[in-house]
Amino acid sequence: MEAIMAQVRGATLERNHIQIDSEALKKQIDDECGPKIAELDQQIAEWVDLLRAWSEANTSEFAGLKSIETPQGLLGFRLGNRTLKPLKGFTWETVSEEMQDRPKFIGYLRTKHEVNKQALLVDLDQIPPEELRAVGIKVQQEEIFFVDPKIEELENRKSVTT
Fold this sequence. Notes:
single chain; mainly alpha; 2 strands; about 50% helix; flat; disordered C terminus
């Protein structure tokens, strides 16, 4: 058991060192490349805005189509995904109330009833076990095996051969 625990500890230390080195390399790359990427993203966004303004001002160039293909690429307009939004003066709550009064829309309303397990766990000391059983709940707590290797570095020791 001691030998295997030593192997777990050694492998954990090695893994932690590799992860630290990996994170340091990632940070170094991000530090080196991040500003240039951000600069290019900003420039691309500005150019896309210019292309959008040109497209909106020159709709006749599209000849009734939604897009134009150029040797450099495709630009144009496409429909995004459909979304629903409340009308001015409405909120989702008032929309729900209006739908409740119209049988055609009842099928589009949701009612979600679910057990608030977190609240029950917080209040467990105040609920007798027989009351929990009466509603079909039991409290369970499992014992879980763990291995927690000591990962602090060993002191540098010199071995002396006698």
